[in-house]
Amino acid sequence: MDNPAREEDSGLFGRPPQQRGPLPSILFIMLMLLLFTSHNGEEYLARHQYQEALQKLTYQKSNFTAWMDGTSTNFSLPEQNVSVLPLLETLLPSNGSVDPVYSSYYPNITGFIHGDLRLYNITPSYLANSTESYPWKPIIQDYMKDFNENLTEISEKMGAWNWSAPQKVAFSVVEKIPLLSANSSANVTENIALIHGRIEFSDASIGEDLRLEFEGVHFLKNGTIYGLAEPPNRAVDIRYLPSIVPENMKNETALLIEPELSSRIDKFKKLIDAGIIEDSLEDLPPKTACPFTLYAQINSIDVPAHVMEEHEEEIQRPTGIDTHLPTRLSMKSILISKECGMVYEVSDMEGLRSRTFFRKVTTYAGTAAIAYLAILMLFSRQMAKSSTPSGISRVSRYSFLVQSTIDSVSFAGHVTFAVLAEGRPSLSLIAPSFLACIVFLYEAQFSMDIYQIQLPEDAPSPPRRPPAPAPVPTPPVATPLPTTDTNPPTDSSNESSAPNLPATPTAAVSATPQPETPAPALSQNITFWAFFWQQIRTDPQARLYVILFIFLSTIVRIILSPTLTLLFVAITYSCIWLPQIWRSIRRGRSSGLSMEYLVGITICRIYLMLYFLACPRNVLDVEPRYWSYYLAAFVCLQAMILMLQEYFGPAFFLPKRFSTVTAYNYHPPLSPPDEESPEKSLGDCAICMDAILIDPSLRQTHQTSSSPDDWDVKASGADGRKKSANIRGSGGVIDPAGLLDAVQRGVGIAVTRKNYSLAPCHHLFHTECLERWLAIKNICPQCRRPLPPL
């Protein structure tokens, strides 16, 4: 039977079993219900809009099918303005159907097209009062004669976008073979193709873009394009495409609408049923509500039709044969917005096919990866060479910091480019982005290591301590002990022998101990931000990671702004080697950078810069900047100066008054050793613990000198009076005694003064020992203080 007393003593007697509260169970059930029943906000909204788009497409298809069948429907096709045809003949003269034996058109324009913009105001009031004249002005006036000009409505549709600011436009086009309906013939697919894509207007002054979604048709025989463009928040109704094409192509265009609507309806149904929701919604408010009509004309090229077909087949199904065409895709187009009263004329349009672009991206990724691999190898070899403190003391941390900044921007740019490219080209861009990231991290870490070693270089040296006076023996003071006896017994022998005790060197220690100063206690009420700021100030590694975080957070803003990108490239490339040149001049020592590192890094850096700023057909279509050649020449000049500093000195190109280097003197004049010292040494070396002996000949000079303070002065040849007195007679004949004294002075400079080295912390070493030590560590072996270069 259990003992109740024992249970009571153990604290278990009468204790009820602990029960779990209901709150954790309730929270767990609510979380599970949330996960199973809650629709994520964006996903739910996207699914809802998918369903609305599906209903809208179904409605459009039923109305268009009824209109095609001639049954009752509320859909009607508007009539085309009679002024459109003469306007197109004036602005977009067509070559018509060319002879396939000599010329042809590009049959597939899938890719990226860029062009220059020019804006025309075509509102009736402006045309009536404008003195500007152009050939098609009467035609456009006739085109706008039935326009109801309401300035308030026009202003609301145009929105806040500055339509006169864009100077460039970019088309992203995707072309596909249309689906055939039951009433269409097989010849339709040989004459017409459906296209869709995006039009982007760029405002370089504010760094913003305006996007329009467009749908259109491409007539392959004569190279004409007709399309409708709308802002992203307004879907393009492809049922109205037959109203903008020529009259003889209206029926063929109408036969493509119903199969295309059916294809899109099936796509939405499959996506909704499979639960695949692509959130492609525009979260930002629309910048405009102006619709546009697109008319374009592709320029024919002098290539036979069969050669063009071979080229197209090679692009779609590569076999390795050479089918390079002599001319790139070029075209001209106009964008008309009758509702907003404006016309954009797009000129100098050049395109790059998607397959060609992807192949170009892959080629660039390979060359950029090779360049960054070479940079990584050269940098690792240079790090191994400069791994010692003496080697690190020569290099400039700012040169590596500038290069790490360049590589961080390159890493972010390649990652962004890979995300935008998609598909296989994005995989090829992983290699240069990964290598750029590795180089960036290594260079940042190496620059931080350099900073930690070079940090105390500019710190003021501690004041030189005066020589400690010799300890004076003092008799011990008898301290009477407290006693009640007025006549204590005395020992005469102890009293007589006390003054004759020898004095020890430690007898000068103060008898009264000084109280230790307590260390300030850390505040217990310190805030997180104060602690964070203290860590940033005191911990170099924390500073490094904060800088990396700031760089990676703000670098996207730089690469997305063309102006900031060009300014960044100009500044950073100008400062690649300048900090190293300045440090070599300031310290009076060469850089220690190897020849292969300077040449290899300079070539790789210049290649990556000139590809985007000098190549007219780079992957990003950046316009050439001719100042990039001057920038490349300036970088080469910096590298050449660094190489010449190894042979002619750090300040060979500067006047002598600017090339004076103030360095710490490890061999200052010292007081002579004690005459009674048996070894005649300056002391023991703090590294090898051996005595630092002086030259015997200079001890003789010291014995004949007038004062002890002149010992090192005479040894160094600073006594001008004796030097001048040694020259006797006419013709500058040197006295033999003076010659012997000069030899002794030379020995004193070369042997005695260079035999010892006095550190800023006043510790004395053999010069050879200190040189070997500084090749390993850059601190004093005795007090651990940092040491300047020897």
UniProtKB/TrEMBL annotation:
Entry annotated with the keyword Plastid: no
Skewed-composition ranges (Pro residues): 459-479
TM regions (residue ranges): 361-379, 542-560, 597-614, 626-648
Recorded catalytic activity of this chain's protein: S-ubiquitinyl-[E2 ubiquitin-conjugating enzyme]-L-cysteine + [acceptor protein]-L-lysine = [E2 ubiquitin-conjugating enzyme]-L-cysteine + N(6)-ubiquitinyl-[acceptor protein]-L-lysine
Enzyme class: transferase
Entry membrane topology: Multi-pass membrane protein
Protein known as: RING-type E3 ubiquitin transferase
Organism: Lentinula boryana
Species classification: Eukaryota, Fungi, Dikarya, Basidiomycota, Agaricomycotina
